[in-house]
């Protein structure tokens, strides 16, 4: 009996709807410029809230990607997901038709789903009664609908799922899609994460658990990962989508290859509903598992796109985890938190950060961590402060950690 040979999987397309750019080129140029995407909330009147700032996707027009009737029946998070998927498919030059549809799947994660629709319909229910609630409320609200609608809009009839693992959801979606292709269950996957949770109730809830920065007098400098003066994360919204393909499938159609995905590590802290385990043991194991899965030794890692939320607990714990996983080499790795520019997209963060990671490999450039002015003594690694950097990136990791103790690390390599 021969040993099972896992298939190689590559990234051939990217899509990005973010607070610093609504297309992958705009997003990448924003990262390289250190562009700030945080401002006062305009989606609703936030004057009564303790936190009044967020990373919004300004001037997003869903009708560039779908008909008006279709857009009206989608929550904003699904609009982002479908738009990002269509961008990624176009970027990959991948056409889905009757010949390949059953071999192309979708996994798009979301931490919150259609909370805006839920809030709006609760108001309708209270003011006008149950009979006036929309028949589209449930299909607009449920978190799996971005994946389902993406399949409907693209014709992808292969494996379809949705990860709902809080802020790790987008990375879990990419890792699970990687496994499906690696083990022969699909030839290509549309995968990533999306979120549109900048809403009154969501903002109030995160503020109530003391997770948000309330630096309302200076929005541009509110998200400051690894900085001594950080005081919470800033919410963001958008979508990040990758097209993963089995290597021979990509080569057969002469697809451009951004990078190869080689490792997926997933663990749980089993410790606390919101706080990471002290010392970062769970996160360190996720990093180590991704390295082992990809046949990577710590000294091979050039770049890490950190979870880097700008909260007191996360940044010091993640620093400890990277040291635990990489040893002394941790001090030689370029690390950045792109949340300093985009804010925290919750379930969508792993998606846009995976896009940033593969573009760093493809372009040999490292995005900066902006607003890093007074490094926390407990955060003493190289966080590429304030200015992007040229660097040959052979191996890069992307970390995502979520409420509930979910830890995910994805490992990418330059395709050879």
Task: Please describe the topology of this protein.
Layout: E1 9-17, H1 24-33, E2 39-40, E3 53-54, H2 68-72, H3 76-92, E4 104-109, H4 115-128, H5 137-141, H6 145-154, E5 160-161, H7 169-182, E6 188-195, H8 200-208, E7 238-246, H9 247-252, E8 259-268, H10 281-294, E9 303-305, H11 312-326, E10 334-336, H12 339-342, H13 349-363, E11 365-366, E12 389-390, E13 395-402, E14 406-413
Parallel strand pairs: 4-5, 4-6, 9-10, 9-13
Antiparallel strand pairs: 1-7, 1-8, 2-3, 6-7, 8-14, 11-12, 13-14
Helix pairs in contact: 3-6, 7-13, 10-11
Catalytic activity: a fatty acyl-[ACP] + malonyl-[ACP] + H(+) = a 3-oxoacyl-[ACP] + holo-[ACP] + CO2; (9Z)-hexadecenoyl-[ACP] + malonyl-[ACP] + H(+) = 3-oxo-(11Z)-octadecenoyl-[ACP] + holo-[ACP] + CO2
Pfam families: ketoacyl-synt, Ketoacyl-synt_C
GO cellular component, one term: cytosol
Describe this structure in words.
This protein is of the alpha/beta class and 416 residues long. Helices cover 33% and strands 18% of the residues. It has 2 domains: 9-252, 3-Layer(aba) Sandwich (Peroxisomal Thiolase, Chain A, domain 1); 263-413, Thiolase/Chalcone synthase (Peroxisomal Thiolase, Chain A, domain 1), CATH 3.40.47.10. It contains 13 helices and 14 strands. The strands form 3 sheets. It has a 10-stranded mixed beta sheet with strand order 5-4-6-7-1-8-14-13-9-10, with helices on both faces. Strands 2-3 form a two-stranded antiparallel sheet. Helix 3 (76-92) packs across helix 6 (145-154), helix 7 crosses helix 13 and helix 10 crosses helix 11. It is globular. The mean pLDDT is 97. One of its GO terms (cellular component) is cytosol. Residues 6-414 form the Ketosynthase family 3 (KS3) domain. It catalyses: a fatty acyl-[ACP] + malonyl-[ACP] + H(+) = a 3-oxoacyl-[ACP] + holo-[ACP] + CO2; (9Z)-hexadecenoyl-[ACP] + malonyl-[ACP] + H(+) = 3-oxo-(11Z)-octadecenoyl-[ACP] + holo-[ACP] + CO2. Keywords: Acyltransferase, Fatty acid biosynthesis, Fatty acid metabolism, Lipid biosynthesis, Lipid metabolism, Transferase.
């Amino acid at each position: 009996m021969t040993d099972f040979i896992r298939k190689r999987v590559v990234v051939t397309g990217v899509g990005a709807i973010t607070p610093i750019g609504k297309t992958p080129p705009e997003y990448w140029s924003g990262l390289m410029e250190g562009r700030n995407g945080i401002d006062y909330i305009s989606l609703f009147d936030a004057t009564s809230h303790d936190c009044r700032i967020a990373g919004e996707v300004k001037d997003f027009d869903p009708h560039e990607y779908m008909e008006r009737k279709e857009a009206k029946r989608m929550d904003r998070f699904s609009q982002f997901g479908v738009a990002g998927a269509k961008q990624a498919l176009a970027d990959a030059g991948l056409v889905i038709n009757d010949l390949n549809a059953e071999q192309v799947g979708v996994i798009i994660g979301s931490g919150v789903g259609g909370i805006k629709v839920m809030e709006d319909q609760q108001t309708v229910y209270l003011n006008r009664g149950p009979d006036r609630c929309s028949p589209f409320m449930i299909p607009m609200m449920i978190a799996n609908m971005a994946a389902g609608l993406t399949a409907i809009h693209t014709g992808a009839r292969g494996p379809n799922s949705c990860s709902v693992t809080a802020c790790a959801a987008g990375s879990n979606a990419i890792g699970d899609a990687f496994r499906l292709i690696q083990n022969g269950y699909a030839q290509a996957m549309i995968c990533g994460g999306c979120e549109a949770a900048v809403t009154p109730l969501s903002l109030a809830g995160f503020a109530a658990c003391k997770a948000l920065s309330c630096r309302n007098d200076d929005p541009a400098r509110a998200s400051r990962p690894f900085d001594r003066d950080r005081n919470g994360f800033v919410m963001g919204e958008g979508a990040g989508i990758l097209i993963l393909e089995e290597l021979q499938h990509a080569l057969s159609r002469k697809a451009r290859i951004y990078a190869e995905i080689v490792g997926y590590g997933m663990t749980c802290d089993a410790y606390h509903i919101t706080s990471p385990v002290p010392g970062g043991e769970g996160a360190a194991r996720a990093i180590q598992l991704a390295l082992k899965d990809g046949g990577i030794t710590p000294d091979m890692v050039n770049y890490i796109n950190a979870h880097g939320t700008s909260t007191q607990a996360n940044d010091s714990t993640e620093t400890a985890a990277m040291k635990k996983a990489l040893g002394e080499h941790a001090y030689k790795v370029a690390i950045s938190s792109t949340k300093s520019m985009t804010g925290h997209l919750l379930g969508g963060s792993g998606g846009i950060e995976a896009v940033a990671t593969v573009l760093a490999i493809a372009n040999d450039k490292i995005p900066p961590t902006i607003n890093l002015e007074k490094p926390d003594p407990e955060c003493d690694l190289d966080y590429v402060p304030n200015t992007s950097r040229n660097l040959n990136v052979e191996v890069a990791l992307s970390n995502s950690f979520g409420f509930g103790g979910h830890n995910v690390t994805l490992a990418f390599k330059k395709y050879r």
